[in-house]
């Protein structure tokens, strides 16, 4: 009680305006936006600030050696290994605990450490005075390339840990007990993210161990590791809400052969809590998956990847199945990454069209839709108008803005207008267009500018007359909207999938410079338009005020005088 009084007493003698600097919640918020050096200085201001500033300084630790140097100084020996200058004692651990209890997130990456850490970690394990070295740790990120380093992450696992990112390797000739150790030491995990260095590592047996994490809500794996067997095992987890994969090669290269056939066997009660699902598989396999009587039809978010060649009819059939089975779907991403391009005019069988996408109109909760394909979407201006009118609740829409084949665009800048008119919540829009200055005269027609748009992604759209296009876009964009362009094909799949044909890459790269010019011009043009609009509005208000005053004066002048009689 005395300590608490000592901490709050300085504020009592200060002016009212200065007392805000002694509100703990406000200080926590302010310090969270400052860098480490600033918070170290804040910790030296007074006792009251010190405790809060130290929480901010040690909340996230990226340098484990720096943290353990609080115990005893750490030096690098002649063999390139870190070691304590002396063995930590009980008093050292008592001092360390003052800082250890503040750590909420610890990140270790063997690539960012110059020396070897085994000696320091072994000494920590041997001399520690309590089982939980970092008792309030909530997130641990441990990525390395050595099995010995991997085993040492077990030092920091305990029942309070909620988020774990860790590397995995198969141990030759035996089943790895590592996941079993994780489940035993950190049974209350909410999120598990695995970096898997071996593309051929079979996760089926390992994922069976994950079922012991009864509170797990999210699992993240590298691409191509969500196989039939893995999905089958994950379907039995009672609280799992998110199954996700990432394209990041740092998580480990996957093997596309693992998902050439996708046919998990589901049982009654599968996926009881799932709402967000990512899968890489053939579209026809996914269609059969969602037609299964035990499929996760209550999901709200679906992200599907396919590297196989699919016809427009197959894609439409898949979307039709989703519209019939997944009534709660609000976010849908259909990413078709087959890159085999026919340089002659593409056939209607391959090219997606408005007819392909029509089943989307039956998904009543849809707010986010993305489709990606090598050929431009075959869609007319009238069909764009209908799409915007039928889906007014859209918040994000990407209609294949970056096809690899760019020679037959069917839209121009006029395609933006229906979305500005009919989709008031739209924050992200991606379209493939042929942008020229010839659309600017048509802009004189009545239209609404975007009020909530944050990003316009033009992908690989072709362009003529950048200045005229920039002038047109400045009529539509709010001041905070930014232009996005270029390709993301090289950031998905294996290393082989990420490479593009040299001619295609050169052709796409040539279209980037004009959009960079527009991106530079737009902020100034939007500001000029805004100032012009403000002046026009002020002038209109002034004219309206004068009109009202004139009407009042006229009415007063035309009013006949009143006769009055005064009796005294």
Entry keywords:
568 residues, 15-stranded parallel sheet, 19 helices, globular
Give structural notes.
- There is one protein chain.
- By secondary structure, the protein is an alpha/beta fold.
- It has a 15-stranded parallel β-sheet with strand order 1-4-5-6-7-8-9-10-11-12-13-14-15-17-19.
Condensed summary:
This protein has helices at residues 2-12, 24-31, 36-42, 47-58, 64-68, 90-100, 118-127, 147-152, 178-185, 204-210, 228-234, 283-291, 312-325, 354-357, 381-390, 417-422, 466-476, 502-510, 512-558, and strands spanning 60-61, 74-76, 82-84, 105-109, 139-143, 163-168, 191-196, 218-222, 242-246, 276-280, 301-306, 331-336, 368-372, 396-399, 428-431, 434-435, 455-459, 462-463, 482-485.
Layout of SSEs?
Blueprint: H1 2-12, H2 24-31, H3 36-42, H4 47-58, E1 60-61, H5 64-68, E2 74-76, E3 82-84, H6 90-100, E4 105-109, H7 118-127, E5 139-143, H8 147-152, E6 163-168, H9 178-185, E7 191-196, H10 204-210, E8 218-222, H11 228-234, E9 242-246, E10 276-280, H12 283-291, E11 301-306, H13 312-325, E12 331-336, H14 354-357, E13 368-372, H15 381-390, E14 396-399, H16 417-422, E15 428-431, E16 434-435, E17 455-459, E18 462-463, H17 466-476, E19 482-485, H18 502-510, H19 512-558
Parallel strand pairs: 1-4, 4-5, 5-6, 6-7, 7-8, 8-9, 9-10, 10-11, 11-12, 12-13, 13-14, 14-15, 15-17, 16-18, 17-19
Antiparallel strand pairs: 2-3
Helix pairs in contact: 2-4, 3-4, 10-11, 12-13, 17-19
């Amino acid at each position: 009680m005395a300590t608490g009084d000592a901490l709050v007493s300085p504020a009592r003698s200060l002016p009212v305006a200065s007392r805000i600097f002694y509100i703990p919640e406000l200080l926590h918020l302010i310090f969270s936006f400052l860098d480490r050096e600033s918070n170290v200085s804040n910790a030296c201001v007074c006792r009251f600030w010190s405790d809060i500033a130290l929480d901010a300084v040690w909340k996230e630790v990226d340098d484990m050696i720096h943290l353990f140097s609080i115990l005893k100084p750490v030096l690098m020996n002649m063999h390139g290994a870190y070691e304590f200058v002396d063995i930590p004692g009980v008093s050292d651990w008592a001092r360390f605990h003052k800082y250890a209890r503040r750590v909420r997130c610890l990140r270790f990456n063997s690539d960012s450490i110059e020396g070897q850490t085994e000696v320091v970690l072994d000494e920590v394990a041997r001399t520690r005075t309590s089982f939980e070295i970092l008792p309030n740790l909530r997130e641990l990120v441990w990525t390395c390339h050595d099995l010995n380093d991997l085993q040492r992450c077990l030092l920091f696992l305990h029942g309070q840990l909620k988020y774990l990112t860790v590397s995995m390797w198969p141990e030759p000739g035996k089943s790895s007990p590592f996941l079993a150790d994780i489940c035993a030491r950190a049974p209350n995990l909410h999120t598990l993210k695995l970096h898997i260095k071996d593309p051929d590592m079979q996760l089926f047996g390992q994922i069976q161990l994950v079922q012991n994490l009864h509170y797990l809500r999210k699992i993240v794996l590298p691409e191509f590791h969500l196989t039939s067997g893995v999905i089958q095992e994950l379907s039995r987890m009672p609280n799992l809400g998110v199954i996700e994969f990432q394209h990041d090669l740092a998580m480990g290269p996957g093997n596309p052969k693992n998902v050439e056939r996708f046919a998990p066997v589901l049982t009654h009660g599968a996926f009881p809590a799932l709402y967000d699902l990512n899968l890489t598989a053939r579209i026809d396999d996914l269609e059969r998956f969602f037609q299964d009587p035990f499929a996760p039809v209550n999901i709200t978010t679906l992200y599907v990847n396919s590297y196989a060649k699919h016809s427009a009819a197959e894609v439409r059939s898949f979307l039709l199945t989703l519209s019939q089975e997944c009534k709660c779907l609000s976010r849908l991403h259909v990413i078709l990454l087959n890159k085999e391009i026919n340089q002659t005019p593409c056939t209607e069988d391959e090219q997606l069209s408005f007819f392909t996408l029509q089943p989307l109109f039956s998904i009543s909760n849809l707010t986010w839709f993305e489709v990606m394909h090598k050929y431009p979407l075959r869609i007319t201006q009238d069909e764009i108008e209908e799409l915007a009118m039928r889906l007014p609740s859209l918040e994000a829409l990407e209609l294949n803005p970056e096809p690899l084949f760019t020679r037959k665009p069917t839209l121009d800048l006029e395609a933006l207008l229906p979305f500005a008119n009919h989709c008031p919540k739209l924050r992200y829009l991606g379209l493939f267009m042929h942008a020229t200055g010839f659309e600017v005269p048509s802009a004189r027609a009545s239209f609404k500018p975007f009020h909530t748009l944050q990003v316009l992604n033009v992908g690989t759209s072709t362009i003529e007359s950048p200045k005229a296009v920039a002038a047109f876009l400045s009529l539509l964009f709010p001041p905070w909207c930014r232009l996005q362009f270029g390709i993301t094909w090289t950031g998905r799949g294996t290393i082989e999938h990420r490479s593009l044909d040299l001619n295609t890459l050169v052709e796409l790269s040539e279209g980037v410079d004009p959009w960079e010019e527009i991106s530079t011009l737009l902020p100034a043009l939007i500001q000029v338009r805004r100032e012009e609009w403000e002046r026009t509005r002020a002038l209109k208000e002034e004219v309206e005020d004068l009109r009202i005053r004139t009407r009042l004066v006229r009415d007063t002048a035309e009013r006949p005088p009143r006769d009055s009689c005064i009796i005294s």
